[in-house]
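Hey there, shall we discuss this one?
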Amino acid sequence: MGRSKMGLLLACGVGMALFAGGCSEAEDEIPEPLDEASQSLALADRLAECAQDPRVVAGLVSQDICAGAGVFFHETFEGNGRTCGTCHPVANNTTLDVPFIQALDQTNPNDPLFVFRQVPELAELETSDLLDDAAILENVDGFADPTHRFVSRGVNHVLSLSTSIRADSGDGTTNPPTERTGWGGDGSSDGTLRGFLKDAITQHFPKRLAREPGVDFRLPTPEEEDVTLAFQLSLGRLNELDLASVRLFDAEAEDGRQAFMDPNRGRCNLCHHNAGANFQDTGNNRNFDTGTRTKGSPLNGGSFGGEFLADGGFGGRDLPAPNFDATGIGFPNSFGNGTFNPPPLIEAADTPPFFHNNLQINDKADPGLTDAVTFYASTPFLFSPAAQELEQRFGTPLNLVPLDANAIARFLRALNAAFNADIAKQRLDAARVLVDQFANTRADVQQKLMELARVEIDDAIEVMAPMTLYPAAAQQLDLARAEIAQGLAASSAVERRNRIVNATARVTTARAQFGQNITFVLGQGNLMY
């Protein structure tokens, strides 16, 4: 289904300024400006609610992180009904994929994610890529002519941001941002994760494509930005692994760890040091041109002067005309410099699709992690600037053989499943603390944590299943699921506690089978929803 079949509606351009907007006479009547007095109470109310939240009272979560989660998951900023959690749902690893969207469309077709189908003024807020490929429309190069000057990109998960957003100034990008956000590393107009909230509201929350602050949405207060930042930095893990000391108890996964680190086999560890997102030499996130932009992608693109507009990655904001040949056609057809920033890999198996353009290397035949790893044996990568830099550094071209690619994928699945198990245990431990302290008072919080623990267990099982990885651990996790189900159905706090303790023991037994020194420090944000 092309963009024209989604019910296109021409909207007025919003000019070159990020938040400025104008409207022609053909535009629908402008909504009344928002009531400024009512806006200032929202965060105070959230903080007051959080002061009574059992997780805060028990010392499991700080009041600011609790309030930040409230802003992230529940605040619409008086826009079109979307929240940050609309595209970053906690029960789907804070990202979107096709199965999740299809299931949501079947169960709740009026979810704000699909507001473009419900509000004529927003018919061009998304393209068919949202439903077909879990990709969203992004005006990363400025809001001038937003229905034409856009790219389609996958949704970044927001796990473990505290480990992955420090910008590396050694990558040759001009005016590098303070922090790497978005797939191009410049997703925030002010260069910070804190400022990203404004941009996300402007991009995804408007009532009209005119995007006029105070009319189509309200912008966050500085205090809301502060607590939302605190929450985001508390999600996922707060530390990096030391892969040199990690040992996997699965022989092929352990071989994959060695291949990952070996510059003559995988060369992965240089750009994804310790399976994170940072460059080995600096410990910071460095942009690269790996050739993903030249590989055929199913996603739509915008247009400029009637010509197709490709995704040029970093650095194209507010340029007057395309400046970069992103696809090798012989003339500029994109804004940017062709570089993108690496995401962390520990979370990768659980957060498909992959790359900025949700690229499937084998034409969707195998959209899993192994397929993504094999990209680095493909022609687009081997002829990319990043591959050439690696060849200069190590003296030989990369020769990633299928056996090593498969082992690396198995290794990454093992890390991801261990991460899932740890978050499941973190949530179960928190639920037990709350039962002990509050019994049946606010049992809903205990139950939700149990449900989200089960989601992580499901994810671990799903991550391991394609490669029959750790079958005994998978069996223990399945038993933990059963304990959680019985705990959710329990008629008393005592029985619920017993089931939580049993489930935790099962998860702990499973986790011990993965390996040694796979130690994650987890953030408080994992307990929020």
